[in-house]
Predict the structure.
Amino acid sequence: MNYNSMQKNIYIYPITSRGKDEAANPYIYNLTQSLSLNYNIVNKMYPSSSGCLQLFKFFFKTNIFYFNWIENLPDRKFGKFQSLLFLIFVLLAKSFNKNIVWTMHNKTSHSKTNIFLKKLLIKTLLKHSNYVITHSKEGIQYGHELYKNSKIVFFPHPVLSSEIKPINKNGNIKNYDIIIWGLMSPYKGILEFVKYLFDHKIIKYRIIIIGKFVSNDYYQEVMKYKTENIQIINNFISKTELFNYIDQSKITLFTYQNSSVLSSGALIDTLAQLTNIVGPNTGSFKDLCEENLVVTYNNFDELMKILEKSKQNQLEIDKQKICKYLDNCTWEKYSSFFYNLNTPNNNI
């Protein structure tokens, strides 16, 4: 890497005017706070309303450009034009010895539009990034399949140390067998799950689904299969309320259907609540299953057997083991990890 007087200056994409509101993904806020321990975030106080155009504004003030979710760029306003600008920017940045970092959160965009352009952006970053960060071991294999010479490093999805539940805190009475939470998007498989239960006449599980649906049409589709044991809260709620609901539930279930998923912020936030987690056998879920911290399934038939064990209180977690794991992947630890990648003697 090239080290000069600007090595402490970093640009993080995307920082937008949405900020840290209820609907915004908290990842960028936490990332910015984490890297601020060692770096000057040049655009921290300048949320962008012009997309990729802002990259050029900070070009000569920045040494490291750190990108997230670039695969979604073609779907944004003027997305094809922005994508072209971004490809030009990457070539320009490399010619000026700028450093590029990309966190590969997903294999590709969850949306199936503009697939060719999205794949082009991903392959460009795999080729030209000084290094690619992934929060799932599967991301290493996937990245090397697309571009074998890409420099990919793994760090588990970071967690806020302040949100790790005290191990000695007593749990509430379990009013629900299952909680499903998060932004309710089609790729998360909520519709497929409730339809499966409906079709198989499975009504014995007390289920609460919490989160804003991305559209009223999707909400209405899910509601077709609602039964008296399924409660749906189509809204954002505070983390305090959410954690209380998680504490009242025997398991937190993730029904992600999309093969594009590598890591999940909702997964690590839930793990920090020291609760039983069940999810698909892919990405970060698979990593955590190998650590015996969560339970995974390959299809809904397998899932039903797991749910029955949970119903009979036969699923147990090792809270001490979870806490030990989480202590090694806090945002503070991530800050040190990232800083060490940027030391002059690092060969990556």
Observations:
- Residues 79-95 form the longest helix (17 residues).
- The chain has two domains: 9-156+329-341, 161-327.
